[in-house]
């Protein structure tokens, strides 16, 4: 159940109640593709840095260790020792990213495992069955994420098929949730809006999926090559057509600036690999922009990554020490940078929620953007 608590323009402050706990929105979901955050970050760490939602990948967990294994272990929450909400994506994005290995048909997609080359088939029903075995809090509908440069004819055909697949996902999810041996019989389903940068296709698809009365609605197929301006234009066209009493999730986005702009356009949920990926390469986020700790100027810098930051890295270690760890290829260096970045994102979302509640979001956004875009 989603409750809209406050608005400021299009920006929303909401509360989403799930079987695994309440999610305060806007929220950034910390990405743990294979049921772990890359960079040696544990679920205890996630609790310490105030993570609300963890996101895992249906395709990767299906390939390894296998969703049947996770089901046998009691579901993803028990398997990875995480008692808060989990969202699993559907595997649809892998259809896009594994473009050289896949064949899309009406029944679903035939493709090869990126690990051992074995042939895999995944359609709407299979994706729902895998996600039911994983027993996540929120399951994503199976869709195709077409290239942002696909022509209109391909995009129209792709979006029509994605809509047909969504209806099949809903039927299968309802069936699975009614079975007595399903681990999470209150698993939620989010549909995904597609259509590239064609506003009219996006808008028509938004109207169609809204009629299906789903638990939430995602906007997919952005941040895949189009400009930031095109992304914002699509959000301005699509978000107003989605139900006001359901959360809106912008998939795979993004930078702190992207998030601030998208919140201003009515988005509730975000996820992105940037904080963990950048952290593993020594790039850390601060209110004064992004820093590269490999830079020589930090070699004897005794200060924390960011003054006043309460993350585990900043409370205990200097830039100089973390730089040394990174240069020496010690895993602790990566781990501390990832923890700092996730803490930065989670804290920024808390600040966003507080600003919307106080009616000062536009001032906050302006001030935050001025800082983070400095470097």
UniProtKB/TrEMBL annotation:
Zn(2+) binds at residues 309, 311, 314, 340. Keywords: Glycosyltransferase, Metal-binding, Queuosine biosynthesis, Transferase, tRNA processing, Zinc. Gene3D superfamilies: Queuine tRNA-ribosyltransferase-like. Substrate binds at residues 89-93, 143, 194, 221. GO terms for molecular function: metal ion binding; tRNA-guanosine(34) queuine transglycosylase activity. Its cofactor is Zn(2+). It comes from the Bacteria. InterPro entries: ArchSynthase1/Queuine_TRR, TGT, TGT-like_sf, tRNA_ribo_trans-like. The active site is at 89 (proton acceptor), 271 (nucleophile). GO terms for biological process: tRNA queuosine(34) biosynthetic process. Pathway: tRNA modification; tRNA-queuosine biosynthesis. One of its GO terms (cellular component) is cytosol. Binds 1 zinc ion per subunit. It is an enzyme of class 2 (transferase). Its EC number is 2.4.2.29. Residues 252-258 are annotated as: RNA binding. The keyword Disulfide bond does not apply. It catalyses: 7-aminomethyl-7-carbaguanine + guanosine(34) in tRNA = 7-aminomethyl-7-carbaguanosine(34) in tRNA + guanine. Residues 11-369 form the tRNA-guanine(15) transglycosylase-like domain. PANTHER family: QUEUINE TRNA-RIBOSYLTRANSFERASE. Belongs to the queuine tRNA-ribosyltransferase family. Homodimer. Within each dimer, one monomer is responsible for RNA recognition and catalysis, while the other monomer binds to the replacement base PreQ1. Catalyzes the base-exchange of a guanine (G) residue with the queuine precursor 7-aminomethyl-7-deazaguanine (PreQ1) at position 34 (anticodon wobble position) in tRNAs with GU(N) anticodons (tRNA-Asp, -Asn, -His and -Tyr). Catalysis occurs through a double-displacement mechanism. The nucleophile active site attacks the C1' of nucleotide 34 to detach the guanine base from the RNA, forming a covalent enzyme-RNA intermediate. The proton acceptor active site deprotonates the incoming PreQ1, allowing a nucleophilic attack on the C1' of the ribose to form the product. This is Queuine tRNA-ribosyltransferase. It comes from Schaedlerella arabinosiphila. The gene is tgt.
């Amino acid at each position: 159940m989603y409750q809209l608590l406050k608005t400021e323009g299009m920006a929303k402050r909401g509360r989403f109640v799930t079987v695994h706990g309440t999610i305060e929105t806007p929220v950034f979901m910390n990405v743990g593709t294979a049921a772990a955050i890359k960079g040696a970050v544990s679920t205890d760490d996630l609790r310490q840095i105030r993570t609300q939602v963890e996101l895992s990948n249906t395709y990767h967990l299906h390939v390894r260790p296998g969703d049947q294994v996770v089901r046998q272990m009691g579901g993803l929450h028990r398997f990875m020792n995480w008692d808060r909400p989990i969202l699993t994506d559907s595997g649809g994005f892998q259809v896009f990213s594994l473009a050289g290995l896949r064949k899309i048909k009406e029944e679903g997609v035939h493709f090869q495992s990126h690990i051992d080359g074995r042939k895999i088939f995944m359609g709407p029903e299979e994706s729902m069955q895998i996600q039911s075995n994983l027993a996540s809090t929120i399951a994503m509908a199976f869709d195709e994420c077409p290239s942002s440069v696909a022509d209109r004819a391909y995009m129209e055909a792709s979006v029509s098929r994605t809509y047909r697949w969504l209806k099949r996902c809903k039927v299968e999810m309802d069936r699975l949730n009614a079975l007595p041996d399903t681990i999470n019989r209150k698993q939620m389903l989010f549909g995904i809006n597609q259509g590239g940068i064609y506003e009219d296709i996006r808008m028509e698809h938004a109207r169609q999926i809204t009629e299906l009365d789903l638990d939430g609605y995602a906007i997919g197929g952005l941040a895949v090559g189009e400009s930031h301006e095109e992304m914002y234009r699509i959000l301005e066209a699509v978000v107003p057509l989605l139900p006001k009493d359901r959360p809106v999730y912008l998939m795979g986005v993004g930078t702190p600036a992207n998030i601030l702009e998208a919140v201003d356009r009515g988005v509730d949920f975000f996820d992105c690999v940037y904080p963990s990926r950048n952290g593993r390469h020594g790039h850390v986020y601060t209110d004064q922009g992004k820093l590269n700790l490999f830079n020589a100027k930090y070699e004897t810098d005794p200060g924390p990554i960011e003054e006043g930051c309460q993350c585990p890295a900043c409370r205990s270690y200097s830039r100089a020490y973390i730089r040394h760890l990174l240069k020496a290829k010690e895993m602790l260096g990566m781990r501390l940078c990832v923890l700092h970045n996730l803490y930065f994102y989670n804290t920024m979302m808390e600040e966003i929620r507080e600003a919307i509640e106080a009616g000062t979001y536009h001032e906050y956004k302006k001030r935050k953007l001025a800082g983070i875009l400095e470097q």
